[in-house]
Amino acid sequence: MRFLRSLHPLLSAALFCCITMNIDAQNPNLTVNQDPKFEQLLTEKRKSNPNLSYNDRYKIQIFNGVSETAKKTLSEFKQEFKDLDGTIIFNTPNYKVWVGNFRTRMEAERNLPEIKKRYKSVFLIKPNK
Question: Does the predicted TM-score (pTM) go above 0.70?
Answer without folding.
Answer: no
